[in-house]
Design a protein that fits this description.
The chain has 488 residues and is α/β, with parallel strands linked by helices. Helix content is 46%, strand content 14%. It has two domains: 276 residues, Rossmann fold (3-Layer(aba) Sandwich); 191 residues, 3-Layer(aba) Sandwich (Rossmann fold). It has 17 helices and 15 strands. Helix 2 packs antiparallel against helix 11 and helix 3 crosses helix 4.
Amino acid sequence: MVKKPDRRPLADQNLEGVWGSIARRFPERGKLARALVDELDEGLALLEELQPALTFFGGARIDRTDPFFEAAERMGEFLADRAIPPRTGAGPGIMTAVPEGFRRRLLELGEVSRGEAVEAEAEAALVAKKDGSEPVTGRARMLTQGFNIHLPFEQSINPAIDVALELTHFPTRKLLLWKKALGLVVFPGGFGTLDELLEVWRHKQRKRLDLPIILFGRNFWTGLWEGIRRGGEEHSHVTISLQDLDFIDRVTDDPEEVVNLIDGFRANRVLPEPPSAMGRRIASDLFEALDYLDGLKPAVTFLGGSLHEETDRTIRTAEAVAEILAREGEMPTRAGGPGALSMALYRGGHNGRKHLPQQAFGLRREGLPTIFTADRVHIVEDRLTHKVLLTENTSAFVALPGGLGTLDELFSILCQLQTGKIPPRRVVLIGSTFWRPIFDAIAEQMLEGSRKTISPGDLDLVTITDDADEAAALCLEPPEDLPLIAQA
């Protein structure tokens, strides 16, 4: 059973969902806000009817001959034995392997005789509350769950998914994959997998998520960590630390170990904020933030730098870039975090063009001050909203060395560029001693050898430099001159 969000004009839609009252308060708000909240409303409503599941992230390009595909199938079989439903992105690769193994094992147990039975069970489970019938329980509720992303070059919902929702926007899709989950298992993959992992890792670090995170494929993940460690040798105050690794519960090559860990966690699982409450909170945040953004001039968005000192060379480079952008292109900057970077962008921008307002969008953090030096400042409550603001109305991206938050934001942008969800834009990485080891490790783990979870062109999405003139020139490059990434 596949559900698709309601795409009718706002005036023709039923506004009684979790965001209906908010939509009526702001009937003139932008199309993007309505589309995002529409998807969020549909997805959270579906989640409320589904059992908590174990969520899997992993590469769409991992084929059936890969040992990771076989391991994912085995994991699905173990889940069927424990009556734990799987949830994936509903595409190919790992997203197919787990539900296939799960359903095959159910067939062996005699619980599913044909596809029509699964469809009937799904329908019964989702309409039980509406028609007053008894809810479906036990193995009849053991449905494979999928939240698919609509892409121009891939990917239809795989046939092993029993209940699916097709989505258009990555931010809502990622939230729906981890919300109401029992845990998160991350197989090797590409930029999309890193985007998903870094988001949940960041949420857990900030105590916004209490789920076990398990990395499967020790060599793959150890290789990536080594690149991050090397990159942070000269930037130990801003990069991922050994303490951050404590938020990863296990790195393993054993499928049964994964399921045993999740089964033990399930007994003590207490679901946090209800999906409907989350929907109302995020909807209000999105509408207000995107309305504020509508009144601003397009800008170059800067990521990272919140823990840097003013004397750090990358901060000085960022200040020089802001001055050139203002002087040569009348282009303001947008800071994604507080601290020394926000101050440097303000100084540089006004040195280049005194009356050009500089922008900042911050994410409120409980117990910590959110102080920006900028002419236009908007603070949001939710990370989903913050990521949308960093990509919308943005002409280019610049990232400085940073920690989990910076990497999370960067790979969210790269994933959307790679899949064509946002138009081509430059991504400039300042601080070569930090970024080169990381992207060398990405090339080694994702591109070299027999397993290729990214394309060669994906690495061309970023330019690493320490030169302010080069960085500014790239940011001012006309969009029509940017190379298009060929999708494989």
